[in-house]
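Dissemination and training. As part of the outreach component of the grant, students in the summer workshop were shown how a complex can be specified as a set of sequence lines and then modelled as a single object. The example used during the hands-on session is reproduced here so that future cohorts can follow it. Participants entered these lines:
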Amino acid sequence: MSTPPTPRPAARHPLEADLARLERIVDVMWATIHRVLDLPAPRRRRVGASDILGEAVSDQLTGGGVSAEDVLTEALAALLQTPETAVTTTWEALAVGIARNKTKGALRKAGAWLHETEHRPKLTVVSGDAPGRPGPEGDPADPPLELIEDPTDDLDDEFTKTSQQLELLRLAQEILDDRDRAIFLGMHYGTRTRQSLATEFDLTPPGVTHVYRTTAKRLYEHPRFQRYAEGGAP
Amino acid sequence: MTEPQDPVDELLDAYFDYLEGVGEEPSLDHLTSEQRAEAEQLISSLKAAQGMDPEASRPSLAALMARANARQNAISVESLGANIQTALRRSADPRARVASDVAAQAAGLASALVIYARGLRIRVLVVDEGADIDAAYAASVPSIAAVFGAFPDSNAVLVTNVDPIPIGVIVDRDDVVTAIETPSGRAQSPRISRPVLYSPDACAHYVTETIPAFEPFEHLASHHAAMSSADVVDVDHIAAGAIEEIATSGARARLAAKKDSWASLGGPEAALIATALRRALAGEFDEALFRQQVEELVDVA
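and obtained this result:
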């Protein structure tokens, strides 16, 4: 019979003591998950020659029986199970790396369930690990999943950039009028085509681009975004 | 007349075409340094926003934490079950197994696992991580009693946490009821009667103590495997004992005929019975022949 080890009380995770920081980290993990999910079949692609763009990214996980929320839960559980001594950079960088890897894992698992069933036809999604289209010189591009940077990249930098994007999104939702908000969000996140926005707001497609540019400039110059861009939390 | 488009607007238009898959990636070479800086900032921001969904609202942190904890708990319970199974197989029963307690969960009871070892069934009630087992037991008495009540075949309940080093205690059926103690005669509320231990060891101790292991008797079985029943049974001794018993009874008989006839039984009759027993054990008993031999003995007498 083994010797009973000395029991010890379970330690509270250091991030649980700073919920505001944990909220920011989870926001970025959520955005990172969507970014990776979008890669195999980017939403910002035209469907044929029409003005219709691709489907929402969470559809990529349909075959795996999990949702983006499940991936986030798994990533957060992994983050909260990591002891402080195992963190070689920052919690923020680690969170980005975990979110990426968990999403890539979920995409790979989902691939096994793409076959046709009696209830639905074969799912038509772009394989994340098949070679990409040949480039101008005829060499096949890397598979989409391989294009996701390794976690050895500057994850802290990615965390900051994603945090800035989230702040940009919050600002756009708070300070822009309906037209500018629709144009900025539609163009910036690739959910609308210029043509559809031009039709809705009685503009030309170049006019839509111009509105997007001036709106983006206004947001970048906003003091709240400037503070964020300089590294300070709002 | 249409105004010429601003170079940055023009480049941005071309860049959107590129993003939407209907154009090549535009070059920034023709822009002035100021225009180029602005274009680079816009493109960099568009790249950083790639894939983000402005409409996707994430679950609240509290909900995520609850789900993450539940998930982690499930993994911990699974791991605890594997540890207990390994410990029991090593120390108590090579065929011990631990399974998810589906029946209890379906019935809404608190048992998460069920342990099978040496014919015993131990159900496992998991308490919060880091919980004090004595306090957890006191709070869980109704839940434990419900498990015993719903599953009368349960020999014990292990109350354990799922810490990295799980500790727990085995609770007997009697530990969840108020008992009148002797010699005081006072009512004693439910209490733990066994020590709090490393949970796999708590189970192993309980199984070993409750159902001690039998000495191995395989050698006996193999030794006797080649022998017949007649070899194992001392037929002569049995026959002689039976005849002696009848003769003794005959000596106490009041009827003279019975006394004489029963008391006269001895060696020849015992030999006849022993022979008949041997044949019967060998599956060769012949009733007619036996009757004939008995009659011959009567004639001789």
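The mean pLDDT of chain B is 84. Students were then asked to discuss how this feature might be tested experimentally.
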